[in-house]
Amino acid sequence: QVLLQESGPGLVKPSETLSLTCTVSDSSVTSRYFWGWIRQPPGKGLEWIGSVSNSGTTYYNPSLSSRLTISFDASKNQFSLKLSSVTAADTAVFYCSGELGGTTVHYWGQGTLVTVSS
Amino acid sequence: DIQMTQSPSSLSASVGDRVTITCRASQSISDNLNWYQQKPGKAPNLLIHAASYLQSGAPSRFSGSGSGTEFTLTINSLQPEDFATYHCQQSHSHPPTFGQGTKVEIK
């Protein structure tokens, strides 16, 4: 059973950069999946943000790509999300994910609420 | 991006009912369609992949069908633990996109 755990601040000020990290419990699976982020604004649907392979190949949602960086740190079995210039519209529960082919989500973190507010 | 549209947005049903949820894609996605179940306050969980393949551990009362642009998720004999929100997702092309979700509530 692969476990994912998100970490990072729950409150970010407008115009600043949202940064989250996800730790993968089992290093043996990291080469078989893409590792990514999905968000869900309160009471709304799911939005795929982007993903990265353990070799650094990335897929980004074009709607966010200009503000987005996703990277993988193999030495720590972690991957991270950076979303710049945030606004209140970026307030959401952020889930980290393990995706087959960078699409089908087989593993989910528990989710972390990030609120953008001054 | 491929747009995914689910119907209905919500439904009320009783334990033992048969429930059907529809998901339509804005263009053909072959059988590249997944279904997830999400309970309140929890992360979603993969139920069905490739339109009709039941994920390991998912109850056999769940089934999926369809190809191209129209897909269905069927729950036979609804159980109390099935009251949740169901999301479809296309895995045909990037970015993968989700439907808006269908909330199944207790009648």
- For this structure, the quaternary state is heterodimer
Number of helices of chain A: 0
Record field, number of beta strands of chain B: 11
Profile the largest sheet of chain B: 7 strands, mixed
Following the backbone from N to C, one meets helices and strands of chain A in this order, namely EEEEEEEEEEE
| Helical residues, percent of chain A | under 10%
Uncertain segments of chain B are none
| Most extensive interface | A-B, 22 and 21 residues
Shape annotation of chain B = globular
Write up this protein.
The complex is a heterodimer of chains A (118) and B (107). Chain A has 118 residues and is an all-beta fold. In chain A, 0% of the residues lie in helices and 51% in strands. In chain A, strands 2, 4, 5, 6, 9, 10 and 11 form a seven-stranded mixed β-sheet that branches. A four-stranded antiparallel β-sheet of chain A has the order 1-3-8-7, with no helix packed on it. The relative contact order of chain A is 0.32. The mean pLDDT of chain A is 96. Helices cover 0% and strands 50% of the residues of chain B. In chain B, a hairpin with a 2-residue loop joins strand 7 and strand 8.
Question: What's the gist of this structure?
Answer:
The complex is a heterodimer of chains A (118) and B (107). Chain A is mainly β. Chain A is 0% helix and 51% strand.
List the helices and strands and how they pair.
The complex is a heterodimer of chains A (about 120) and B (about 110).
Chain A: E1 4-7, E2 11-12, E3 18-24, E4 34-40, E5 47-52, E6 58-60, E7 68-73, E8 78-83, E9 92-100, E10 104-108, E11 112-116
Parallel strand pairs in A: 2-11
Antiparallel strand pairs in A: 1-3, 3-8, 4-5, 4-9, 5-6, 7-8, 9-10, 9-11
Chain B: E1 4-7, E2 10-13, E3 19-25, E4 33-38, E5 45-49, E6 53-54, E7 62-67, E8 70-75, E9 85-90, E10 97-98, E11 102-106
Parallel strand pairs in B: 2-11
Antiparallel strand pairs in B: 1-3, 3-8, 4-5, 4-9, 5-6, 7-8, 9-10, 9-11
